[in-house]
Amino acid sequence: MVVLNKIYTRTGDKGDTALGNGARVAKHDVRVEAYGTSDELNCFVGVARLHATDETDEALSRIQNDLFDLGADLCRPDMEKDAESEYPPLRMIGTQVDRLEAEIDVMNGVLEPLRSFILPGGTELAAHLHVCRTVARRAERLATELATQETVNDAAVRYLNRLSDWFFVAARVANNGGKDDVLWVPGANR
């Protein structure tokens, strides 16, 4: 159980922060950027939930919880030392990715195939889900950048990749099953 009695600690006043293993790094470190962006994404998901129906709200609630798991995973380097830890760190697992894929398949099953790229927009929920999609892509880019420098849990990267797909398909569902998608018209304003 987490207990937060005091919110400010002053330990980061000089521009560094603690990772999950206690190591201190710059607040602009790519690892901090990656898990910070997953936290930002979680906030946007919270805004999207304000416009969601019950079923979509339940799915977004699960995603918010997963995003906290993802942050816990990304803030903890040294995966190779996980087995030695007194308390094994929380890591994303394949079943979380599998769940997203199954949900995408169900949602996509009721949609007509796309014949054009779509522009972000349509309903309020769809517009918010498109914002979530792009922030998920940014988090994925940061996680893959981190993976070029340090070991990163493969399931975490796969989750982010699938999550942006989930938001795309969910936005189409939110747009009256794709009927209210805003289609891109190449060169329309030339």
UniProtKB/TrEMBL annotation:
Location (main, coarse): cytoplasm
Subcellular localization(s) per the UniProt record: Cytoplasm
Pathway per the UniProt entry: Cofactor biosynthesis; adenosylcobalamin biosynthesis; adenosylcobalamin from cob(II)yrinate a,c-diamide: step 2/7
GO molecular function: ATP binding; corrinoid adenosyltransferase activity
Gene Ontology CC annotations of this record: cytoplasm
Top-rank lineage group of the source organism: Bacteria
Biological process per Gene Ontology, one example term: cobalamin biosynthetic process
Descriptive protein name: Corrinoid adenosyltransferase
Organism the protein comes from: Sulfitobacter guttiformis
